[in-house]
Amino acid sequence: MQSGYQEILNEGPRRGNWEFGTVRLPAGESWININCVSDDQTAGVQLIVHDVGAFTVGCSDERVEKNANQFTFRAKRKARISIDASEKARWTVSVQVPTRAE
Predict the structure, then answer these.
(1) What does the alpha-carbon distance between residue 68 and residue 6 come to, in Å, rounded to a whole number?
(2) pLDDT by residue (tens digit) across 16-28?
(3) Which of 9, 50, 58, 101 lies 20 to 30 angstroms, CA to CA, from 27?
(4) DSSP three-state, residue 91
(5) CA dist., res. 96 & res. 10, Å (int)
(6) Considering only CA atoms, which of 100, 102, 99 is closest in space to residue 2?
(7) What are the tens digits of pLDDT across the range 59-90?
(8) 49-87 in b/e burial notation, b at 16+ Cβ within 10 A?
């Protein structure tokens, strides 16, 4: 957990694709953390913030890969978030927003 932030979404561990639905993201910085491990080295996880962007995380078969990604928004917005992942990848996702957010 980032200091000064609150968690608005926490999911996992899961495998494969997942649709989180819509979350409210405030203006300013938000953090999306993905942790994953795979059954082989070819598995990865793509997190999609629809109408904003996406990023892909490679998953190791030896240790949990931890990734933190920062998004900065000029205005508050609603965003649909989903995961595109192989069944070989086991992942967790956390979305954190500033504690002063509505």
Answers:
(1) 15
(2) 999 999 999 999 9
(3) 58
(4) strand
(5) 9
(6) 99
(7) 888 778 888 899 999 999 999 999 999 999 99
(8) beeeeeeebebeeeeebebeeebeeeeeeebebbbebbe
Which strands form 44-49's sheet, in the order they lie side by side?
18-25, 77-85, 44-49, 53-58
For residue 33 the two structure tokens come to: 């953390």
Angstrom distance (rounded) from CA 25 to CA 93: 15
Residue 62 contacts by C-beta under 8 Å, 6 or more apart in sequence? Answer: none
10: which 2 tokens?
A: 């926490």
Whether 79 and 52 have beta carbons less than 8 Å apart is answered as yes
Parallel, antiparallel, or unpaired: how do β-strands 89-98 and 53-58 relate?
Answer: unpaired
- Joined together, the tokens standing for residue 43 give 């598995």
Check whether the bond before 26 is cis (ω within 30° of 0). no
